[in-house]
Specification:
By secondary structure, this protein is an alpha/beta fold. Helices cover about 45% and strands about 15% of the residues. It has 9 helices and 9 strands.
Length: about 260
């Protein structure tokens, strides 16, 4: 397990902590693997009744550490990496315990999407959220767009995805992306208090409440993730993406042909 993301279990509440503050908790392949291992461990721990996902440093996560994509492994294609990532994060859907996310600073790209797939999100004042993938020639591909669509509707999603503009904490609260906004110094305490309250409730009741919500929301998210896998694979092999990369290398404006 990576030292850059850790799991602590105290009583019936487990705490996942992003610990890569020097890079604003940007995720690399090692952190991905550790996160998926942690989720797998929590899936089999029947004593854990609630999970808090938080971060050290200024930001929850600045997204993907692009310098570390693939971890230098030539045997994994982008398609394979996406399939591994989808399988890893979809463990959230089969966990007995709800996951509450304490968001602060930046939550960008895949890290924002992963937070969207969790049960509850609480933001610190000053938090900002962004989906910048289109500006990098690709699309968001971690399932969070489907959940954002469920929460905000098509207009907000199109704006965030196509322009890459940030959403601040106040707007996120207004749209229901987060359920509460609190001062940053109170964030961990508030989320822990919420988790302990959930953990103290009858486990069967919490499970059935979450199951009903999952029946409403999860099929659409899974379907979207399957479509993302196809679309992102096409994009990575498209002429436009090749032109995007070549134009950046040659420091010129790209000429796209829609293919």
């Amino acid at each position: 397990m990576s030292a850059k993301i850790t799991l602590d279990i105290g009583g019936r509440v487990a705490v996942i902590t992003n610990r890569n503050p020097d890079k604003h908790n940007a995720f690399d392949d090692e952190m991905d693997a550790a996160l998926f291992e942690i989720l797998g461990q929590l899936r089999s721990d029947r004593e854990v009744r609630a999970v808090v996902w938080r971060a050290e440093g200024k930001s929850f996560s600045s997204g993907r550490d692009v310098a570390a994509i693939g971890g230098g492994r030539s045997d994994l294609s982008h398609h394979d990496l996406m399939r591994r990532g989808h399988a890893g994060i979809q463990q959230l859907f089969t966990m007995d315990a709800p996951v509450l996310v304490a968001l602060k600073g930046w939550a960008i790209g895949a890290s924002f999407q992963r937070a969207l797939l969790c049960d509850i999100r609480v933001a610190a004042e000053g938090s900002r959220f962004m989906l910048p993938e289109v500006a990098h020639g690709v699309i968001p591909d971690t399932g969070g767009v489907a959940r954002l669509f469920q929460i905000c509707g098509p207009g907000v999603v199109a704006d965030m995805v196509l322009t890459g503009r940030p959403m601040d904490a106040a707007e996120a609260l207004a749209h229901g992306v987060v359920s509460r906004v609190v001062p940053v110094e109170q964030l961990d305490g508030v989320v822990m208090e919420m988790a302990e309250k959930i953990a103290a409730a009858p486990a069967a009741t919490v499970s059935m409440a979450r199951r009903i919500q999952a029946h409403l929301a999860e099929p659409q998210v899974r379907s979207s993730m399957a479509e993302e896998l196809i679309a992102q694979t096409f994009i990575n092999r498209s002429d436009d993406y090749a032109e995007f990369r070549l134009a950046r290398t040659e420091d010129r404006s790209p000429v796209y042909r829609g293919s």
